[in-house]
Every structure is written in structure tokens, then in C-alpha cells.
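User: Hey, my collaborator sent me this sequence without any context and asked if I could get a structure. I don't really work with proteins. Can you help?
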Amino acid sequence: MRLGELNGKDIINLSNGVKLGPVGNCDLLIDENSGKIEYLLIPSRRSGFFSLGEKSYMKISWDSVRKIGPDAVILEMDSFNIGR
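Assistant: No problem. I've predicted the 3D structure and written it out in C-alpha cell form, which is a compact way to encode the shape of the chain:
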């Protein structure tokens, strides 16, 4: 699968059914030596109207990905595979 094919798919947490947003809004951390995807960086939703300057991300291990379907990427996340 090519990276461009992930664009637009919704990211859903299997553990609680929460939709985390589309893949297009995410960044990927890739190991420079192996070329393997290590983490998804998903922008955190901020409360409040202004979120100037600083961006906050959830850092989610690529090992959390359980399934990539035609419309969604299914993750199984808990507090152990989420970094900030």
C-alpha cells in the first residue's frame, strides 16, 4: 500500500470506538534506516477557539494498527501504546 492511499481514511480506536480524525491530518515518524513506519502523530483536539503556535500530538505506535480497510484505519490503543 502506498502512503497516498491512506489519505482521507478515518482513524478509529477499536478499544472505545472513538474516531480520532482522518489520516490526512496526521504525520508519520519513519525510521530512516529501515524505512519502516514507527508512529502515527495524530493532532490532539484542543478545547477553546484559539490554539495559536503550539501543536499537540498523540504519538501512537504503528504496532497498534489492526486493520486498514477501504474507509478506515482501525487501531487498538490503550494507555500503554500512546505517547505524548
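In plain terms: The chain has one domain: 3-83. You can pass these C-alpha cells on to your collaborator as they are.
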